[in-house]
Amino acid sequence: MSTHSGRSGARLAAVQALYQMELAGAGADEVASEFCDHRFGLEPETGMAGEIDRDFFARVVHGVPEHQAEIDAAIAQVLSEAWRLSRIDSILRAILRGASFELIAAKDVPAKVVIDEYVGISHAFFSGDEPAFVNAALDRLAHRKRAAEFGETPPDDELAF
Description:
mainly alpha; N-utilizing Substance Protein B Homolog, Chain A; 7 helices
C-alpha cells in the first residue's frame, strides 16, 4: 500500500466519521472502532474499499475533537464576516475540520497536500461552488498556520503558537 493512497482513503473515511460524530453525537473511540471493524476493506459500495492508513485515520478522528476549540477558532478566522461555522453544511464542516487539524497539528504533511486532498474530498460530495469555498478557506488558513511553507512571515496573532 502506498502511503499516499492509504492516507487519501483515511482522509475520506475521517470526514465521514467526523460527520457521523457530529450528527449522532458519538465519540471518537466509538466511531473509529465502527469504521475499523465494519467499513474498511469490506464493501466497495461504501467507498471504503482498499487499504486505509488506519493510524492516520485515528489520528484525524481523535485529533479533531481534542483540538476542536482551536480548530473552530482557526476556521472562523478565515471565513468572511457573513459566515459562521454553524451556518456551513455539516459535511463541509467535517471537511474543514479534518483539514484544519492537519494544518495545525500534522506538520509532517505539506500544506499544499492537505489542501489538494480535502478539495478532492469536497468534489466527492459536492458539484457546485463548495470545492472552491473549501479551497479558498484552506488556502487562507494554510497561509496563517504554515506561513513559512509559502515563504511568508506568520501574521502577528499566529506568532504565539
